[in-house]
Fold:
Amino acid sequence: MKNKLNCVLLVDDDEPTNFLNQMLVEETGCAQHIQVAQGGEIALDYLTNSEDATMNDDNFPCPDLIFLDINMPVMNGWEFLEKYRQLKIKHKVKVVLVMLTTSLFPEDKLRAEAIPEISGFENKPLTPEAWERIMQKYFPDKVENSQSA
Structure:
């Protein structure tokens, strides 16, 4: 299948959540690579390495889509975003960043909506319906491959 996302990056400290989200993305067949980062610092390290890698580097493919949790130890999602903003523009220009969280605070959604780097806000767990909405909205040219979701 051509026309897949290059890479989906899952940023969450919860292993079961990462496992379920990774399985869902794999089942859709829409991504060439799926990277899991169990925290903001690990994700930033990955993104820094993907910035420096060549576009065809399978070890550090640049993500097209990032799912970011808010509540993580060491570096939460908001702190990650502060550092993310400092990354080189060549990497961030095509990335769709979706907050994926269990947060029930309306303030979190409002805060996310006010941050230009955040494209969407979804509740955990990632569902096939949420995946399809995201694909339809941000990657319509790749939707044909996501119909198995």
